Amino acid sequence: MNSVFTSVPLVPEISLHLAGPDRGLFDGGAFHSDRPPPFWEFAWAGGQGLARYVLDHPEVVRGRRVLDLATGSGLVAIAAARAGAAEVAASDSDPDAVVAAHRNARENEVALAAEMVQPDVVLVGDAFYTARVAEQMAATLHRARRAGSRVLVGDADRGFLPARLFERVTQYTVPVPRALEEVEVLVAVIWEMRNTMLSSTNNL
What we know:
Blueprint: E1 4-7, E2 15-18, H1 45-56, E3 65-69, H2 75-82, E4 87-90, H3 95-107, E5 121-125, H4 131-146, E6 150-155, E7 166-175, H5 178-181, E8 185-193
Parallel strand pairs: 3-4, 3-5, 5-6
Antiparallel strand pairs: 1-2, 6-8, 7-8
Helix pairs in contact: 1-2
């Protein structure tokens, strides 16, 4: 897909290579079951909210090792780097997203690490969009929390976030493309994972 290098509505300090405002997720290409659609060509509302929160509260990441899971475009990772994180890594199940995240990071004059074993902070934007993905992500985040990482999530009420595991921090009203979301604004809620000690991820 052709992309446009443009500022992010809620986070104008950061610009990304994104699909145009009149493009939806499945517009302009054929996708196959073994290759996911290009989620990384869009600045999703939850990620925008989380990036805004990190930039507005840099003490959350300053001097810390930060992992951005399900990074997509790399927006949240770039925000963490801009906010003074000691090191930031971006991870995604789609290799094309990781490539896009590093490209966007370079364009914003920050660097991302290739990987990270034990982060101090884990950030996740818009990763609870299906029941199966949400279950897998909740288990991953629970393990990170038990290992000592602080976990923050940005979610635009996709319907699958296990809210009982989180505490609500704040929310943002986020401008979004109608072609993508069928509305012009969404509310992105920032959540922090509770310090729970569940005996098994089967309880998630």
